[in-house]
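ingest -> validate -> predict -> emit
validate: passed (alphabet ok, no gaps, 203 aa)
predict: started
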Amino acid sequence: MLATHRQGVFDSPTHRMPAFMVGKHIATNAEERVYQLVAVPLPAGNGEPDRAVLALHRYAPLVEYLAQRMSDHEHPVRTTGELEGDAVQLAQRHGLSLDHVRRMLLQDARQPNSLLRPFVLRAVRGERIQVYVTNRTHLPLQVALLDDDFGIQQTMESRILASDETGLYSWQCKETGIFPIFNQACASSLPHRCLLGVLMIEP
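emit:
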């Protein structure tokens, strides 16, 4: 189920909330997970167009900072002092833990970073998850869950999110497994460039 709107969303995900805390339309014995995510652009390099990556809403400023540094090919490496200054500024401006920001920022922006990997959503079999995704890219975004076996796809046709639009996706997790989440509006012929994350359903 999908709806698009331009309202703001909360900053953090809530995992396994009792249904009476998240909405009256869910049975009292049901459980639901709520994720608040943003899609931000990540430079691909080698002449390829940017691609969208998912991040928790509260960590979007860090991903945007890393993307900016990756675009600066002339200065990919920060000194210790420069990196500390960046960390302090990000932590103060966005209300983040300074120690956590320090751990996420690497001196060389070309090094692998956990914030830039495909995002993993976790759920337990039988749960329903709600995923809010805000498109902070200049690219069209059409979130799709790939599952041909267990019928946990969206219940209605997904719409393309323009910049700054938010979509609400609701999925019932019927069976265990790992299911890819991808951008159906991605123009790349390389599947990994369209991958946004995975839904991991545990027993």
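Confidence is low (pLDDT under 50) at residues 1-29.
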